[in-house]
Write a sequence for this structure.
C-alpha cells in the first residue's frame, strides 16, 4: 500500500523498525501509532493496519533521490488503491481498525485475496 504523505518509498529507520516489530509481534496497534507519528492521518493509519490484519503488507525502501521516481512507478503498478480498498472494507461493515480483532487466518487471507483478484 502506498502511504499518502509518506509514499511507498520512505527512508528506512524508526518507522521501518516499528512496523517490522509490530508485524512480528502481532501488535498491529503499534502500526497505527508509528504511521500517525510519521504524519499519516489516523483514518489512513487505521486502513493500513486493517490491511495488515487481513494479510497485506507495507513496503518501505531507502533509495537514492535519482531513482525515486522510477521505483515509485514500479511500486505503483502493484500497489493497492487505499481509497477503493477502504470503501470495500466499509461496504462490508468495517468501521475502523480494532486492535482486539485477531489477524486473519491463512484461509481468510486466501479468500480475501481471491475476492480482490476478481475485481
Amino acid at each position: 500500500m502506498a502511504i499518502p504523505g509518506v509514499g511507498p518509498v520512505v527512508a528506512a529507520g524508526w518507522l521501518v523498525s516499528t512496523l517490522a516489530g509490530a508485524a512480528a509481534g502481532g501488535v498491529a496497534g503499534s502500526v497505527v501509532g508509528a504511521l500517525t507519528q510519521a504524519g499519516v492521518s489516523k483514518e489512513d493509519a487505521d486502513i493500513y493496519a486493517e490491511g495488515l490484519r487481513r494479510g497485506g503488507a507495507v513496503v518501505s525502501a531507502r533509495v537514492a533521490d535519482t531513482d525515486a521516481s522510477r521505483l515509485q512507478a514500479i511500486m505503483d503498478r502493484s500497489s493497492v488503491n487505499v481509497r477503493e480498498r477502504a470503501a470495500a472494507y466499509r461496504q462490508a461493515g468495517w468501521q475502523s481498525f480494532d486492535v482486539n480483532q485477531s489477524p486473519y487466518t491463512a484461509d481468510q487471507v486466501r479468500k480475501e485475496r481471491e475476492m480482490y483478484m476478481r475485481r
Notes: Residues 65-78 form the longest helix (14 residues).
